[in-house]
Amino acid sequence: MPSETITLKTEDGDFTAYVARPSKDKAPAIVVIQEIFGVNAVMREIADGLADQGYLAICPDLFWRIEPGIDITDKSEAEWKKAFELFNAFDADAGVKDIAAVIDHIRADPGCSGKVGAVGYCLGGLLAFLTATRTDADASVGYYGVGIESRVGEVEKLERPLMLHIAEEDQFVPKEAQAIILQALKNHAQVTAYTYPGCDHAFARHGGEHFDEAAAKLANGRSLTFFQQHLA
């Protein structure tokens, strides 16, 4: 399964993206939206896994405006400090604009069927929600998105399918925030939301402190079924 790093040129500047290609000539694409640790081994592994499932996966460097090429882990205090500095400096609106450029780029790729989905984690979970409300992505999935509760008004713009995975014990998304999100989205025809009892933030991050194998398997299975349904 071949992979490469490409450069996208936009009116705001150039940034890179990791691309993993499936074995077939034409496939739906999925934009993999990073956590606060940049395009690191975990994100590349997710992209590679999607390529193994038959998708053209692309993971853009969304921190490029602050500092290009961030690739850190969740294993040291210094890296966590760096990650939160990046998170606090990040402009989500500019990030969604970059994701829209990525969608346009990968949709025009000769290896793309024309359908493009998005999946995001943590910061990327919020961006997946905004990708669903602000871009022409065909289907989006957000895992434990941080800050969605302050953006739920955007659901009025949602016209394409969105799936959210919410960790019930998420230390970064308190119960009150979860209640706001679920209440705002519960009657929307395009939204499917799942909650995971006993799970903390990043329960699907392989190798992470709060990784929950059973919950990750369940959520990932739901996501793949969702993409098969909407990107075929």
TrEMBL record:
Domain (Dienelactone hydrolase): residue spans on this chain: 15-231
Top-level taxon of the source organism: Bacteria
Record's keyword terms, sorted: Hydrolase
InterPro entries: AB_hydrolase_fold, Dienelactn_hydro, Dienelactone_hydrolase-like
Pfam families attached to this UniProt entry: DLH
Gene3D superfamilies given in the database record: alpha/beta hydrolase
Gene Ontology terms, MF aspect: hydrolase activity
Protein's name according to its UniProt entry: Dienelactone hydrolase family protein
Annotated source species: Phenylobacterium glaciei
Lineage per the UniProt record: Bacteria, Pseudomonadati, Pseudomonadota, Alphaproteobacteria, Caulobacterales
